[in-house]
Amino acid sequence: MNIRNLKDQPLDEIQVKKAGRQIKGFLIWLLKVVIIVGISYIILGPLITIVANSFFTANDLYNPVVMLLPAEGTLQNYITSFTRMTYPRTLATTFAYVISLTLIQIFICSMAGYGFARYEFPFKKVLFGCVMPGGCSAHGSAGRHLRRWSGRPARSRRCWTGCTSARSG
User: Fold this and answer.
1) What is the pTM for the complete model shown?
2) pLDDT top residue among 61 and 158
3) Which of 47, 60, 75, 116 has its CA 20 to 30 A from that of 132?
4) Rg of the chain over CA atoms, in angstroms?
5) What percent of the chain has pLDDT over 90?
6) How far apart are CA 115 and CA 12, in angstroms?
7) Which pLDDT value is given to residue 162?
């Protein structure tokens, strides 16, 4: 068969449906990838920012041009934190605290999930809809709280001349 013969033949209805299904499948796959990448960025964004800021010097923290990658990277922040706080004891205490909270959270969420799956009750879907956003909303405010707990001052807004601008209102 040559190209002229293929051009003159009408497409079979089955071939058209098959091509439509393939295009639809590809578009659904692409939408899933975009959603997964977007949610991953929302969740990992604060973590990436915190790790990047840990390598900043004092000059980098107050430089409005520097956002994610430090201009003068340093490990001094890690050295200072390791020497000033008894790091092994603090790390062990933190792990014990986090593991206990995680186990309690797993137990409570398992019981709530069991209740939603096993029992039928009025407004079950509405309550489940109210529970789901709570699991996703805590990540956005993590950076704000960590900055407050770390004792590091919030980044001030500076204009292009270097002066600190105070916001009114």
Assistant:
1) 0.43
2) 61
3) 47
4) 27
5) 23
6) 52
7) 46
Distances (CA, A) of 74 to 46, 53, 57, 62, 153: 20, 10, 6, 15, 18
pLDDT in tens, 108-164: 888 988 988 899 989 888 888 887 776 555 544 444 444 444 445 555 444 444 444
Q: Phi and psi dihedrals of 82, rounded to 5?
A: -70, -35
Count other Cβ atoms within 10 Å, centred on residue 62: 15
Structure tokens at 98: 């986090």
Dist CA 73 CA 46 (whole Å): 19
> CA-to-CA distance for 78 and 55, rounded, in angstroms?
8
> Whole-angstrom Cα distance, residue 157 to residue 102?
37
- Cβ contact 59:72 at 8 Å: yes
Residue pair 57/72 in contact (Cβ under 8 Å)? The answer is yes
DSSP at 158 = B
pLDDT in tens, 40-53: 989 898 898 899 88
| 141 contacts 147 by C-beta, under 8 angstroms | no
